[in-house]
Design brief:
The protein is of the alpha/beta class. It contains 14 helices and five strands. Helix 10 packs parallel to helix 12. The longest helix has 43 residues. The chain starts with a helix and ends with a strand.
């Protein structure tokens, strides 16, 4: 989070320190500092939202805005630090020369007065920069998380997972070892243990190739099962759409029934349980971001000792570990 918000956290604390009486700021300068403090808190919250979104899903303007704000925060912190050092001065080393120190402090008053005048000018300059990025924030609607994600009006946004899903097998370079390992881990052999439900979670950071690998395994194994489905999830998914997608994969003809479109999540879960009760299935749930989503999906996937296999992919370690065996 420190990388996402730059120097915002420490900078806001230092601005709060500047408002204390010991810095003896002029009223107009204090008001400027208070304005900066308010704006920076708002920008910090916006940067946190931006930091929560995968970088490859961010709008380009938002990326530029976030970089500009972070750079601005580091520059501001340098200015504030220099002012604080000049006003406070170094800690005295020799306690015995108090008179000498007092005379030096009196001599420093003029210098510190000039320093306070300089910080007043710097605050004005910083305010102008902050106002500019604040206007950009409002223009790009960074405070609204849905607008942080790249989705310009009238443009077609391509989900990078789609490219991974439909790559030709010949294009998949460097995954043979992983493909072999996963296939072996999921293989169905003779014996009761093999007939138990097995869940495997493919874990790794964004862009590592989890979806590509999971789809390759899915394509290799699905012929061994009565039914199968590969379902992308993503952040903040519609659970109704997610269950409908699983149903569509398992039974396309059944899914064409218009009644299903009006069903709620509970009815869709019930339908899935009925469909899967006596079948051996392979289901891939791709790109899960939170535990609650997985827990709801799991309620619909029955365990019937027919050698069912579930593969999940996630970039969240906590989600991977509660899902099943982690690859």
């Amino acid at each position: 989070m420190d990388h996402a918000t730059g120097a915002m956290g420490s900078l806001i604390l230092k601005l709060g320190e500047l408002l204390k009486e010991e810095y003896n700021l002029q009223r107009s300068v204090k008001e400027g500092v208070q304005y900066l403090e308010r704006e920076l808190k708002s920008m910090q919250a916006a940067l946190c939202k931006v930091g929560d979104v995968p970088r490859d899903q961010l709008d380009e303007q938002v990326k530029l805005w976030a970089n500009e704000v972070r750079d601005l925060s580091y520059g501001m912190e340098d200015i504030i630090d220099k002012f604080m050092v000049r006003v406070e001065g170094p800690e005295p080393d020799d306690k015995q020369h108090k008179l000498k120190q007092l005379m030096k402090k009196m001599g420093d008053l003029f210098t510190k007065g000039k320093t306070r005048h300089c910080i007043g000018k710097e605050i004005k300059r910083i305010k102008a920069g902050i106002q500019e990025v604040a206007d950009q924030r409002d223009r790009y609607r960074v405070h609204e998380i849905n607008d942080v994600v790249a989705n310009p009006t009238g443009a077609t946004t391509v989900d990078p997972r789609l490219l991974a899903l439909y790559k030709d097998r010949k294009e998949l370079v460097g995954i043979d070892d992983s493909l072999s390992e996963l296939t072996k881990m999921l293989s169905i052999e003779d014996g009761d243990v093999s007939k138990q439900l097995k869940i495997l979670s493919v874990f790794g950071f964004g862009g590592l190739g989890k979806t590509t690998l999971a789809k390759a395994v899915y394509d290799m194994l699905k012929a061994q099962f009565d039914c199968s489905a590969f379902v992308p999830v993503g952040r903040n998914p519609s659970m109704k759409k997610l269950f409908n997608d699983i149903l569509f994969g398992i039974d396309k003809q059944k899914h064409q029934d218009s009644i299903l479109s009006s069903w709620d999540e509970r009815q869709l879960i019930d339908e899935l349980q009925v469909l899967l009760e006596n079948k051996r299935y392979l289901i891939v749930i791709d790109d899960i971001w939170d535990k609650k989503t997985w827990e709801l999906v799991k309620t619909a996937l029955v365990c019937n000792n027919r050698g069912n296999r579930i593969i999940t992919t996630t970039r969240i370690l906590e989600v991977a570990t509660i899902t099943g065996e982690v690859y």
